[in-house]
Design a protein that fits this description.
CATH superfamily of the largest domain: Reverse transcriptase/Diguanylate cyclase domain
Strand content: 15-25%
Structural class: alpha+beta
Radius of gyration: 23 Å
CATH architecture of the largest domain: 2-Layer Sandwich
Order of helices and strands: EHEEHHEHEEHEHEHHHHHEHEEHEEHHHE
Number of strands: 14
Oligomer: single chain
Distance between the termini: 41 Å
CATH class of the largest domain: Alpha Beta
Number of domains: 3
Helix content: 40-55%
Number of helices: 16
Largest sheet: 6 strands, antiparallel
Length: about 400
């Protein structure tokens, strides 16, 4: 049985929510992001895109390109509420769906052609979503997640596109390599330098060469160029928090060492947030003394996955917690109140340099491993403690 995988993507989601809340913004160039000159663009309307504005662009450059644009700082809580509304509509109808980010979804509609047609069903679902949420949404359908996502992005806004089975290579071939999901700036630049600009040209590259040039990602590039993607639609479930704890072989009172370990844990947690395309608004720090007394403190912050924000907050919480000057046997950090969203979305007041730094660090960690890149202040921390990452849903799990 052929697979039928549907991809749904809310068009200019942040902009659409702002316009729903304030119809006076309709038809005007609109930018959501940091209001300061050093901020970055989190999202922009299609009217602003016509001037060359795009997400992650420095705000000062965006305003130069489109000086008449209206700038809004953004409201992640409102975006999360609307995302949840769309999720509920899909959950009421779809047999199996995955929430990939705050504004996109995958649905496995395999087998529906035996009844009334998977694409027809998808179109009706799209109409239902737009009616109940009053937000625009596009869809693409094909044999797998990769091709469906590319189809949605290629034909949006207001897209309803099916790529018939067997035509995946024909559809992907003329497209630029940077249209393929997970091919970032570094990879696309490297391919461009080699003269590889289209998917059809990438398809002609020998597998051995791609593996030699890109490591384990080389095979992934080869598969994507050929329209191959066997990844399943993962059933949706709401993850409540991400945490990590360090239990020491020997209890310690060395504050410098404790903070070094805390910094290393924050880096792991924020990397996981960005890897999962999530943001958090609650940060918790836990310490356990040698007599097993356990104390925690938490604070709410604007939605973020920024190392800088989480680290600063975690260190402040630690300073408030550690007041007994007793030996400590465990320290932990947790981020919770999770919503879907790319890290650029949360960093409304971060600089372009901050954004580029996070992207570069995450690229290295993804390619070579999380442990291959760390702050100088954390060197040695991993050798002194046993660090255990626990991703859980609402309750603490002790390993």
């Amino acid at each position: 049985m052929d697979r039928n995988i549907i991809h749904l993507d809310l068009d200019a989601f942040f902009v659409a929510v702002e316009r729903k809340n304030n119809p006076k913004l309709n038809g005007k160039p609109l930018i959501v992001g940091g209001s300061s000159r050093r901020g970055v663009v989190a999202a922009c309307s299609y009217e602003a895109r016509a001037f060359g504005v795009h997400s992650a662009m420095p705000m000062y450059l965006a305003m130069q390109l489109c000086p008449d644009a209206t700038v809004i700082s953004g409201d992640m809580e409102s975006y999360s509420q609307h995302s949840h509304l769309v999720t509920e509509v899909i959950a009421d109808t779809a047999p199996l769906f995955e929430k990939a980010s705050i504004d996109e979804f995958y649905i496995d509609a395999s087998g529906m052609d035996r009844f009334f047609g998977a694409f027809r069903w998808a179109v009706e679902l799209r109409q239902k979503i737009m009616k109940e949420s009053r937000l625009p949404i596009s869809l693409g359908m094909s044999i797998n997640k990769l091709v469906s996502k590319v189809a949605t992005c290629e034909f949006k806004p207001n897209a309803e596109k099916m790529i018939p089975h067997g035509t995946e290579k024909e559809f992907l071939g003329p497209l630029s390599v940077d249209k393929i999901p997970m091919i970032g700036k570094q990879t696309s630049s490297f391919l461009y330098d080699m003269g590889v600009r289209t998917v059809s040209t990438l398809r002609e590259m020998p597998l051995k060469f791609l593996v030699s040039a890109f490591g384990k990602n080389g095979r992934s590039l080869w598969n994507k160029a050929h329209g191959i993607d066997e990844s399943p639609v993962v059933p949706h479930s709401e993850q409540k928090s991400i945490s990590t704890e360090s239990t020491f072989e020997e209890d310690t009172i060395d504050v410098r060492r404790l903070k070094s370990i805390l910094i290393a844990m924050v880096e792991k947690v924020t990397y996981q947030l960005r890897a999962q395309k999530k943001l958090a608004s609650c940060i918790t720090v836990k310490i356990r003394y040698s007599n097993f007394d356990t104390e925690t403190r938490q604070v709410h912050v604007p939605y973020t996955s920024s190392d800088t924000v989480v680290l600063r907050t975690a260190l402040e919480l630690f300073d408030k917690l550690y007041n007994r000057r007793m030996l400590i046997r465990l320290v932990g950090v947790r981020v919770s109140n999770l919503v879907y969203g790319n890290h650029q979305i949360s960093l409304f007041d971060d600089t372009e340099q901050d954004i580029n730094l996070y992207e570069a660090m995450d690229y290295i960690k993804h390619k070579h491993g999380v442990e291959k890149l760390m702050r100088a202040t954390t060197l040695g921390a991993g050798r002194r403690v046993r660090m255990e990452m626990n991703m859980f849903k609402g309750t603490v799990v002790k390993l």
